[in-house]
Write a structure and sequence with these properties.
single chain, alpha+beta, five-stranded antiparallel sheet, 19 strands
């Protein structure tokens, strides 16, 4: 769809940075994605609210994204407005053992900030791609730790109104939360940590990163683990068992290092990825009767 010039003017009058027909591939961890009709970069809650309200009023498709590390954007593009919360939305502050992080802050910067402050609790999450908003949206975790476990509260826009939610109110589950509802958009989050020794925290972060590097194909663009963990199984083990490690369709390939990852090996299109996902699901079901559920959001 084409976005009406009057809508653009309305947002510009609120001093919201806007860009037209932006190719999204450089903004995603998959390095895949065609042009979005409009990209907005609000830097305050009021401007974020204005973008969402206009999109709804004008019936423009929209998505709020941070680092887009768990997203596959169509190579044909996105026919609406992408609202990016990145460096324009990446504040971090400390009060005692609590850290307040804006939704667009990367998990790496959050972990580094905690380490510099001598606060422990985030070490096993070091190296998770993406932003605070995306990680809480998906309840991301690694090595036995989930980000939601240390969350104390969150500021969230609900139908345009900013509200405070406790951890329990966000209904965290396996790779899910109340933030899966597009009407709930994270503004910032408060994490409660514990005092620790800076050098010990740093050493554990480095150990965590070394484990990631050894097991995951970090030298290729990807969106992390493609499938949710099926009950009683591991998706990567099933994919490997079915002889799919290294399987390639177009430029998309099942990683030979970790079968749970699909990598953009050679200028993959979104169609290459979705075809490979469907092939994996069919082969795994045919051979094991296990249904694999994709956890990557497709736009």
């Amino acid at each position: 769809m084409r976005i009406d010039f009057n809508w653009i003017q309305e947002l510009q009058q609120k001093n919201i940075e806007l860009q037209r027909r932006v190719t999204m591939a450089p903004y995603t961890s998959f390095h895949i994605g065609g042009p979005a009709e409009l990209v907005a970069l609000p830097d305050t809650a009021d401007k974020l609210r204005a973008c969402i309200e206009l999109a709804r009023r004008a019936k423009i498709p929209y998505r709020v994204l941070g680092q887009a590390s768990n997203v596959l954007i169509a190579s044909a593009g996105y026919p609406g407005m992408i609202i990016l919360l990145r460096s324009n939305w990446a504040g971090l502050s400390r009060k005692g053992t609590r850290l307040r992080a804006d939704a667009g802050l990367t998990i790496k910067r959050l972990c580094d900030g905690a380490m510099q402050a001598g606060l422990s609790g985030l070490e096993r999450l070091y190296g998770i791609p993406g932003s605070v908003g995306g990680a809480l949206h998906n309840n991301s975790g690694a090595f036995g730790t989930e980000l939601s476990e240390i969350l104390e509260s969150a500021q969230i826009l609900v139908d345009g109104e900013e509200k405070t939610f406790t951890r329990d109110q966000l209904r965290f589950g396996y790779r899910s939360s109340l933030l899966n509802d597009q009407n709930h958009v994270l503004v910032s989050a408060v994490f409660r940590l514990t005092p620790g020794r800076r050098q010990e925290i740093k050493a554990l972060m480095e150990e965590t990163m070394a484990r990631r590097t050894a097991k995951q194909p970090l030298d290729y663009p990807s969106a992390g683990s493609v499938f949710k963990r099926p009950a009683g199984h591991y998706a990567s083990a099933l994919i490997d068992q079915c002889g799919l490690k290294g399987k390639q369709i177009g430029g998309a390939q099942v990683s030979e290092k970790h079968a749970g990852f699909i990598i953009n090996r050679n200028q993959a299109s979104s169609g290459d990825v979705t075809a490979l996902v469907a092939h994996i699901q069919k082969e795994v079901f045919d051979q094991t009767s296990v249904v694999l559920e994709c956890e990557i959001e497709t736009l």
